[in-house]
Design goal:
The structure is a single chain. This protein is an alpha/beta fold. It has 26 helices and 19 strands. A 7-stranded mixed beta sheet has the order 9-8-10-11-13-12-17. Helix 2 packs across helix 4. The longest helix is centred in the N-terminal third of the chain and has 26 residues. The chain is elongated, with a radius of gyration of 30 Å. About 0% of the residues have low confidence. Bound molecules: thiamine diphosphate and magnesium ion. The site of thiamine diphosphate has 15 residues, from strand 2 and strand 4. Magnesium ion (MG) binds next to strand 4.
């Protein structure tokens, strides 16, 4: 048996065309008559679907040819899955579609709904990784279209289900708030979300399905159509025949619909029923389509390595296009010559488009590649402030800046959020225990009472769902403030942040939409993710509530990461982040040090020196700017830190000063981006630098990166650089925690030693 199956698959279709007996006069009828008895699909509609299906099939074949010539970079196709063109036709262009990668025919059908679209050329631009690919700008082969409401998806199977769920759940929330969803999507839209059978096994898929079922039980509208295209295999691993059905037929809250791609009119009928159900009931449905995968998983996949030849041939005999062509010819909807002409014409146009696309510009500079990750300028942040009356109402009478007393971190955070929620009507806050309880550390206290359950709500207990909801809701036009209860628990959902939320803009072009002012041709999922984290908690020990590694955050390109160490900084930082998210589409992470939430004192018990006033409501924290404590001209040392390390360093600073050693302390505040240049200036001025990094020494915190930057700067040659950091260990319970965490004596000792050494400049 030949290894490459493009030829045999195409030959079967050609042979059918050659040998088909032609129209059955008893089945003849006008173009608007049903394609089959009682079918809601007309002949005209069937021909339109067929055109999309043929385009998709020919794209697959051509992509493999182009790959062989080194022109294209992607050969995962849609062959065998062409019935999804029906979903592209039956859903509205404004029904946002989160697509499986085998959705070439869906895309072709969806793009037919647009005016001025150039689907063939666009597909070829994306195959050729041209910088002019209108969706990813040549950064990835994705299916997507801003004007046709198809956000690009990553290659991570099933990772899109939770965000699709978030989009669906945002629609009614926005409607109740009187806010129009983004991109002109109407409130009665549905969300379409497709995936493969093997993808169903993934924890993320289960999170999405579970979240939809849970929404129904919590009586929340959730208009999403899940579409499982079941070809019975995932790369080389078989899915048992009745597996998907067994799992989904009785799934609580989700209505099950089934069809088979051998029967296009049946798919149309069932798909229409499923769509109608979701749209009218605002409830989730699951459309299970049986199909086959043709020509292997991708061009490089040799099916004969794991599948028997007779099985491969049986699949090929079930090519849905064969059954569809038979139906079209028998009914007389289109003639043999008509099909041949369509086939040849589409092929010719695709080849011309490919020729043109392959000559179009590629990404050729680093700047072009990273452009969508760019962070705004420092001056670009300006927070919105509600008018005085609204603020007075939101604060229940007295404005926080009018209360002259200093307050601690956990007191100011809800106030900062209150101001932001009064100013941004699309802001939503959600997570575990954030509503009535006001958060496990009271950091969201009072927000539920003030802004109601439509804007402040508890989610189900699943971080993947929380971050998925945030992305989908953001794409739908909300400004999400999701909360993750502990840093350790971010990690079981980190892909939703690292692989998904943070990468969305990278795989979009970031250009402004020429026809829709104020909207972009790129997709964004702005958010301000708040995470309670880091160590030094007294009374609540052990690793999971004292996780001191942020390495997994520091490696994410393009995100903003801030760690406020004091109450007023948390307030202004949250404002800057709201602006970065709302005005620049950025994914921001505010890591709040739990141990400082209730910290009121600095040097002595009762001194109240770690409490601060409420910054005037329009004051933002300059983006990327650190705070510098007590710099004088005769400082011998710069101590650089963040979070708990700042509080400890300031205490050490006072003790050093009592012994005649002068040190300034820098609170980085922003860890992404790092204020490297500013730190360098201080180090150059003092000649010595001690970095106090409360995270694990081995890539847990920012110190390795900062030391690298400082050590290779010629201007700092001869300066003394040191750091103290936590041991590479999980954090144990009780006093043993202090053995692995940075302690004040460690800082003091390192500072003393450093100041005994001479700077050799
Ligand atoms: C999270 C993740 N793990 C592994 C892969 C590699 N991979 C790509 S496609 C695929 C199989 C998917 O099978 P299925 O969901 O049935 O879709 P099909 O390709 O059959 O349409 C795998 C394992 C991936 N992309 N993402
Ligand atoms: Mg499969």
């Amino acid at each position: 048996m030949p290894i490459r199956r493009e030829g045999p698959v195409t030959e079967r279709l050609q042979q059918l065309l050659r040998t088909h007996p032609g129209p059955d006069p008893s089945k003849a009828g006008p173009m608007d008559a049903p394609i089959a008895p009682h079918s809601p699909m007309s002949r005209r509609q069937a021909v339109a679907i067929f055109e999309s299906a043929i385009q998709s099939r020919l794209q697959d074949l051509l992509s493999r040819e182009l790959k062989d010539k080194g022109i294209s970079y992607y050969t995962i196709g849609s062959s065998g899955h062409e019935a999804n063109a029906i979903l592209g036709e039956l859903t509205r262009a404004t029904d946002t579609a989160f697509l499986h990668y085998r959705s070439g025919a869906f895309m072709a059908a969806r793009l037919r709904k647009g005016r001025g679209e150039t689907p063939l050329f666009d597909a070829m631009l994306s195959f050729c990784a041209s910088a002019e690919d209108p969706i990813s700008g040549g950064r990835h082969k994705v299916l997507g279209s801003a004007s046709m409401h198809v956000p690009p998806q990553t290659s991570t199977i099933a990772s899109h289900l939770p965000k699709a769920l978030g989009f669906a759940m945002a629609l009614q929330r926005l409607e109740r708030l009187g806010i129009k969803p983004a991109h002109g999507v109407p409130h009665d839209s549905i969300v379409y979300c497709s995936f493969g059978d093997a993808s169903m096994n993934h924890a993320t898929a289960q999170a999405g399905l579970h979240g939809a079922g849970a929404a129904v039980m919590h009586k929340q509208p959730c208009p999403i159509l899940f579409a499982c295209e079941d070809n019975g295999i995932g790369i080389s691993v078989r899915t048992p025949d009745d597996y998907v059905e067994q799992m989904m037929r009785q799934r609580p809250g989700i209505r099950y619909f089934a069809c088979d791609s051998q029967d296009f009119p049946g798919v149309w009928n069932t798909a229409q029923q499923a769509i109608d159900y979701v749209r009218s009931q605002r409830k989730p449905a699951f459309l299970h389509t049986k199909t086959v995968r043709l020509m292997g998983h991708a061009g490089s996949d040799v099916e004969t390595n794991y599948m028997r030849p007779e099985h491969i041939e049986a699949n090929e005999a079930r090519d849905p296009l064969l059954a569809f062509v038979d139906l079209l010819l028998t009914s007389g909807a289109i003639s043999r010559e008509g099909i041949t002409a369509l086939y040849e014409d589409t092929d010719r146009r695709l080849r011309r488009a490919a020729e043109e696309a392959s000559a179009r510009p590629k990404l050729v500079t680093v700047e072009q590649v990273v452009a969508p990750l760019a962070l705004p300028d420092k001056g670009a942040c300006a927070v919105r402030v509600a008018d005085r009356d609204q603020r007075v109402k939101a604060f229940g009478g007295r404005l926080p800046e009018e209360d002259g007393r200093g307050r601690h971190l956990a007191y100011r955070i809800p106030q900062a959020l209150t101001d932001l929620f009064a100013a941004y009507p699309n802001a939503l806050l959600f997570g575990e225990d954030v509503a009535r309880k006001g958060g496990v550390y009271h950091a969201t206290k009072g927000l539920y009472e003030q802004f109601g359950g439509g804007r402040v709500f508890n989610t189900i207990l699943d971080e993947t769902t929380i971050l998925g909801l945030a992305q989908g809701m953001a794409q739908a036009g909300c400004l999400p403030f999701p909360e993750v209860q502990y840093l350790a628990y971010l990690h079981n959902a980190i892909d939703q942040l690292r692989g998904e939320a943070a990468s969305l803009q990278f795989f979009s072009t970031g250009k402004r939409h020429k026809d829709l002012p104020g909207q972009t041709t790129s997709f964004q999922n702005p958010m301000v993710l708040r995470i309670a984290g880091l160590a030094y908690q007294k009374g609540f020990g052990g690793h999971f509530h004292n996780d001191n590694s942020i390495g997994a955050l520091l490696d994410i390109p393009g995100i903003v990461l801030g760690v406020p160490s004091r109450a007023d900084d948390a307030t202004t930082m949250l404002r800057t982040m709201a602006s970065l998210a709302h005005d620049h589409g950025k994914v921001c992470v505010c890591l709040e040090p739990i141990a400082l939430y209730m910290q009121k004192d600095l040097h002595e018990p009762g001194d109240g020196a770690w409490q601060f006033g409420y910054p005037p409501p329009a004051e933002v924290m300059p983006f990327g700017a650190p705070r510098v404590y007590d710099a004088t001209d005769d400082d011998q040392l710069t101590i650089v830190s963040y979070g708990n390390g700042v509080w400890m360093s300031l205490r050490v600073q006072r003790r050093l000063r009592a012994r005649g050693i002068r040190a300034r302390v820098i609170d980085l505040r922003w860890l992404m981006p790092l204020a490297t240049d500013e730190v360098k200036r201080h180090v150059a001025a003092t000649g010595r630098c001690l970095i106090v990094d409360e995270c694990r020494a081995n890539h847990g915190g920012p110190s390795p990166m900062l030391l690298t930057e400082l050590s290779q700067d010629p201007a700092l040659r001869g300066c003394l650089l040191r750091r103290v950091a936590a041991h590479d260990s999980y954090v144990p319970l009780a006093a043993a925690a202090n053995l692995v965490l940075v302690q004040e004596p460690d800082i003091e000792r390192a500072a003393d030693e450093l100041c005994k050494e001479d700077v050799t400049r």
